[in-house]
Amino acid sequence: MARIALLPEGSVSHEAAVYLVGEENCFMHHKLISDVFLSTVRGDSDYSVIPIENTIEGSVNLHMDWIVHEIDLPFQAEWVYPSIQNVIGRRDEVQGDWSRVCKVMSHPVAMAQCMQFIRANLPHAELEHVNSTSEAVHRVKENPGQGWVAIGTALGARTHGLDVLAPQVTDHQNNFTRFVLIGKEPIALPQSSSSKTTILVTLPEDYPGALHQVLSAFAWRRINLSRIESRPTKRRLGNYYFYIDIEMAMDTVLLPAALEEIEAIGCQVRILGSYPSYTFNHAVTE
């Protein structure tokens, strides 16, 4: 049984973790994402569940920066899971009248995913950001009679004994979040039909056209890149690394050769992991 650190019980991270590894593992919930990371760094947990990208909001830069600058733990798996948000509160308190609601609480990313509903039904309400959707639901539970509601998951509502006042209020139905499982050792998971490798590339400062050369190393080998993103190295202004997702495992001939070619022109290459990739099966929740 693996010890898995993640955000609070009832969060999207919790739903996503249950989907990937099942409920038989030991889930260790933390209020802050920094505590999730540090739990695995210290050895208090075997793995951390980290959301790193959302269909609507893009990259979760804080979490990516932790992976790059603060820790050195490889990716062991990635999976995509739907972020289905709901308005959660007490049915007998709101009584179907949104004017009774004076505050909406949620994680800022989840809140941003539901702004069409909020503008249409709750334009008068105060919006308050908290550390997770689960914390928002918990605070609503602890403050009855205040006219507070939360944006969160159905699992969060069940966990805290509250009602789903409005289901599936996200602006877009294709709202998915990409998660990675990080840890020191591989984990036993079902067979996956696809694999990925994630690398960080820092370009040499005195090599004009270095990025073109990097991309060419993949292109002529017909290696597909599913994501390339620049992020500051935090060493000096204008200095960036490139975060690249490659749709190929390291246990091939082509990919190691491409990385050797990139290093030969003076690039620094750090492999964040080579791992199985899973896509959400809609039948799981139907």
From TrEMBL:
Q: Name one GO molecular function term.
A: prephenate dehydratase activity
Transmembrane region positions?
A: none
Which reaction(s) are listed as its catalytic activity? prephenate + H(+) = 3-phenylpyruvate + CO2 + H2O
- Fetch the Gene3D superfamilies from UniProt: 3.30.70.260, Periplasmic binding protein-like II
Identify the keywords attached in UniProt to this record, alphabetized: Amino-acid biosynthesis, Aromatic amino acid biosynthesis, Lyase, Phenylalanine biosynthesis
| UniProt xrefs under InterPro entries | ACT-like_dom_sf, ACT_dom, Chor_mutase/pphenate_deHydtase, Preph_deHydtase, Preph_deHydtase_CS
Q: Where is the Prephenate dehydratase domain?
A: 2-184
Concerning Pfam families, the annotation shows: ACT, PDT
- Indicate yes or no for the key word Amino-acid biosynthesis: yes
Q: Where in the numbering of this chain does the ACT domain appear?
A: 199-276
**What pathway annotation does it carry?**
Amino-acid biosynthesis; L-phenylalanine biosynthesis; phenylpyruvate from prephenate: step 1/1
Identify the EC number(s): 4.2.1.51
Where does the source fall among the domains of life? Bacteria
The entry's protein name is Prephenate dehydratase
Corresponding gene?
pheA
